[in-house]
Every structure is written in C-alpha cells, then in structure tokens.
Specification:
- With 153 residues, this protein is an alpha+beta fold.
- Helices cover 28% and strands 39% of the residues.
- Strands 1, 2, 3, 4, 5, 6, 7 and 8 form an eight-stranded antiparallel beta sheet that branches.
- Helix 1 crosses helix 3.
C-alpha cells in the first residue's frame, strides 16, 4: 500500500525557468528554505542528493536524508527517491513546476511512501512532512517573487 503526501499548490509570479533555477540553487537553501536547510548533490541522474533537515520532533539538531536523483526535467519536474537506503520504506519525491503563462507558474511537491513501514512513517511523521512541504512551497514563492522583483540578491 502506498501513502502520498501532497503540499499545497502555490502560484508564483515568475517564469517557470526562473523558479526552477531558484529550486535547484542548493547552496542558497539556508537563505530561504525552512524545511530542507542544506543540500549536497551534483544533480546528475542516479547520483546522491543529501538533504539536511531539522529533527522532526523539534529538538535541537539536524539529520541527513540520503536519496538519489531519478528525473531532472527543467523547468518542470525533479524526482529523487530513497533507493535502498531505508529498510522497509521506499519514498519517491516529485517536485512539479507548471507553466501558467510566460511570467507565471505553479509549484507543488509530493512524496509517495511504500514498503512495510510506510504506514508507521506516515503515522509518526506524515503531518511533519506535509507541513514542511507546505512551508517550502510558500517559501519558494516568496523567494522567487522577491528575486524577480529585485528585492533580494
């Protein structure tokens, strides 16, 4: 049985390609991303992507979640998954940017969990993941719109 976590969909007043560039500008994540505070990857297919997140219980500290790049389709679709990193759980994250016009787009993300421990992970951390995804969607919108307006550099 699969479980899907879906973020809110935000409309962004910026071209899809511009938003894509913000999304994959990993060295600057600490400046705007409240959920994934650091990322290390080459963004090459099948290479690792190490995602640094704050602890889900709110305690001090962070942890690194290692996943693997599967789809890089700018400016529309980015996919990575956990591969064999976690016994009993397989997670696939998709991030979508959809063009709504030359200077507008939308963004949302999903995480599809499967495996024998997927239900437990959903019970323990599903709401934390959804809230984190929502915070990324809103922060990406704010960051892209501020950059395109020249309000930040």
């Amino acid at each position: 049985m699969s479980h899907v976590i879906t973020s809110v969909t935000v409309e962004i007043e910026a071209p899809a390609a511009f938003v894509w560039d913000v999304l994959v500008d990993y060295p600057r994540y600490s400046e705007w991303n409240p959920y994934t505070i650091a990322v290390e990857t080459s963004l090459e297919l099948d290479d690792r992507i190490d995602l640094t997140l704050n602890n889900p219980d709110g305690s001090a500290g962070t942890f690194v979640n290692r996943e693997f790049i599967r789809i890089v389709d700018p400016p529309h679709h980015l996919r990575y998954d956990t591969g064999d990193e976690m016994e009993g759980i397989f997670a696939v994250r998709d991030q979508w940017i959809n063009e709504l016009g030359p200077d507008r787009c939308s963004y949302y993300t999903t995480d599809t969990l499967s495996g024998e421990h997927a239900g437990l992970v959903m019970e323990l951390n599903g709401e934390w993941v959804r809230a984190g995804f929502d915070s990324v969607a809103h922060a990406l919108k704010a960051r892209a719109e501020a950059l395109i307006a020249g309000a930040v550099t």
